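[audit] Reproducing an earlier prediction to check determinism. Same input, same settings, fresh worker. If the tokens differ from the archived copy the diff job will pick it up downstream; this log only records the rerun itself.
[audit] input (654 residues):
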Amino acid sequence: MRENTTRPPVLPVAPTRGRLRPLGLDEVRITGGFWARRRHTNATATLGHCRDWMERVGWTGNFRAAAEGRVHRDRKGREFADSEIYKLLEAMAWEAGSGGAATTLDAEAAALTEAVAPAQEPDGYLNTAFGRPGQQPRYSDLEWGHELYCFGHLIQAGVAQARARGEGELTKIARRAADHICATFGRGGIEGVCGHPGIETALVELARLTGEQRYLDQAALFVGRRGHHTLADIEFGRAYYQDDVPVRDATVLRGHAVRALYLAAGAVDVAVETGDDALFAAVVRQWEAAVARRTYLTGGMGSHHRDESFGDDFVLPPDRAYSETCAAVASVMLSWRLLLATGEPRFADLAERTLFNVVAASPSEDGRAFFYANTLHRRTRGTVPATDADSPRAESSLRAPWFAVSCCPTNVARTLAQLPAYLATADDHGLQLHQYADAEIATSLAGGHGVALRVRTDYPSGGTVTVRVVRSPDHPWTLSLRVPAWTAGTTASLVGPDGTRRAVPPGTAEVTRVFRPGDEVRLELAVTPRWVRADPRVDAVRGTVAVQRGPLVYCAESVDLPHGRDVDAVRVHPSVEPEDGPGGTAGTVVAAGEVDVHAERSDAAWPYEPLDRPAARDADRTGIVLVPYHAWANRGPSTMRVWLPTAEPRTTEP
């Protein structure tokens, strides 16, 4: 791990200014627990799975076909398929940079790069879907073509290689592409934007890597042009790709959720690097509105299947939740940038919720199947997806190994590969912990003084986080720990090295002192199941409640119900607090409730009853077993729901 060295840290996001300094993949190592298991699966299964599937369905071969002049005839996949190769390359770089199987990953990345490189044209243009004989001309379809979007992921992969492994051929390809973009879309060039944002964050990160101002200027141009109707109107309206209102005038995230969140992340990057406080404030305003009125309990965003978009305020139907995995990844990207800029723990709170309940839900336990969309209520058991063919997205109650649009598997892969970089930061006063996992941290504080910590926790199953000082300077500094927002109404305590205990509210808990090796600071959080209700304006879930335990959202799954019932037969009693299931904090929660024996009857001629004389219903009184939402659909086809109806008042006992 990096400590007291002049080598730049391995950083996925590297702002030159801001309240907090991120720590790199060579400064933070996740050593065990929830995220270590998932990162191991990602490295040993998911990366290879994605590589093999992209070769199998022909997406890797598109670059060879382009170089050989047959791409117009032989190209496979959607117009944005190139981007999946780039996201995989990025994931490989971050995994190698965080201590993974570097030699093997470097060889695999080199082989992919060798396939990509010959397809790049002399002026830097690189895309297998446009620009060659028999194809549409370059940039002839900015609304749907995704050319700049693909370039964005190429550049991010090049930056990842440079930071994690040293500048190589992939970085050179990315820089030539960026130079082409600046020459083509700069002042005096094409006055347009891409229908799918993503190039903005990439150009800013390349500017941070290289120090080249033109890349930052081009990113700022793209952000400034958005919202001025440079793209054609479409059936979903210009709001679909955020070309309806300028970024700095918008009041809420809207339109296609992934596009909106990628654009917001790019706008934050531009605002931070240029000191544009008004632009930054506009994005914070949009984030606040979206979190307050357009976000699911899981942290998921996007309630429209038809256009993968945000719905109107409080329109959050659980059974129609799209909550795309890529939108969750983009939300974490945005929250992280806002946290670095401001230091405010609310941004880490949303990142935590989204990581545990959406990003972690997407991959199967073996890392070889994925959810594209993340519904909160599955009404039918569905069918087992084919293992030898790609699947329609969002169509099965089980995860699928690959999709015709497989943006989510590679997005999850690159996110898990860079996850250690989201755990901790530093500033002039000390070190801050934002996400909790077994970890080892070694970095330098202000003045070049080395500090090393060891974090031990069984979070999120348990609520104790113990931070042991391994190395420390001989002057005072501040250790800060985030006290999650979900602790409101519970007990949270901070125990200092001297054994002093104090209650801490949600926000940030700090200890400032001269730390000595062996000193321990302990954060104790009450991780117990709790009922949660929605704002009454979320009309779709009135009369229901959900269970949350720590940062984890729970759900009922039909495989746990008696008599083969579906989850729509469940009624719960919120007057009785839910409890941990057998095994204590092992995973399940038991809620007081019942299974309505007649809930699935099909013989009623009319499905409504007078409220003034409710009919008595037979029911099995039982404890309803709930499982973490991220773990559902790992035991075969099932029905599932997060929001559980409360038991109706009874006139007679069954």
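[audit] rerun output stored. Observation attached for the diff report: The first strand starts at residue 21 and ends at 22.
[audit] end
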